[in-house]
Amino acid sequence: MNLVQSVDRTLTILEVLSDYSDGLGITEISERVNLHKSTVYRLLSTLIYKGYVVQDEESSKYKITFKLFELGCKKVDKLDLLKCSKPYTKMLMENVNEVVHLTIREDNEIVYIDKVEANNTIIMASRIGKRNPMYCTATGKAMLAFLPEEEVLKIWKGSKIIKLTENTITDFILYKKELQEINKIGYAIDNEENEMGVKCVGAPIFNIKGEVAGAISVSGPINRITEDKIDFISKEVMKYANLISEEIGYKKI
Question: Residue 243: how many CB atoms within 10 A of its CB?
């Protein structure tokens, strides 16, 4: 095993502190992890800086914070979304007979966390774990359209805006108009903006707080995702996005 010593020691300190709600002094920690006090102090200083540990001003004892719990909750939220969405993404795929994706946002990108293949001969190149920019994908645009304007601007500025195809929107003024329309109608279309020959229809998923939790999409070649099918597909995508939202606690006001 390729262990990184400093990481191993740091995690051991956190594990020890987790057993003591009142905290421990540096000498006590040093004895329990079998490390010199100067080494423990350096590691604790880093943990305090990152917000995983605090030092009580009166007792000088070190205690863990809720940051690890917060990180775990984020993971649970994503797993809950994945678990809850499974039956709905399968039904959506069966209704439209095209591949269905479930994505979440991470920084300025979307991450594919689930994919339901369709019963047709064309296999999409997407895979679970793959990342794509938010600005040029159906699920990315669907999420962006329901974020605060300042957050959208931050994501735009933090993204490397490239004209991936002749249809990619790279003008922010035009892009804002596109997002306003998406917000109005409830779904987004990737009209060969990320990849030529592929069209996608996406809709956002909301959590119990009413925040954007992710999005689902239907994707396929342009000879199958035709203009005359967009109305049907978009209604199906929104229907199942709403059902998933309700499943994870969202209540529309």
Answer: 16
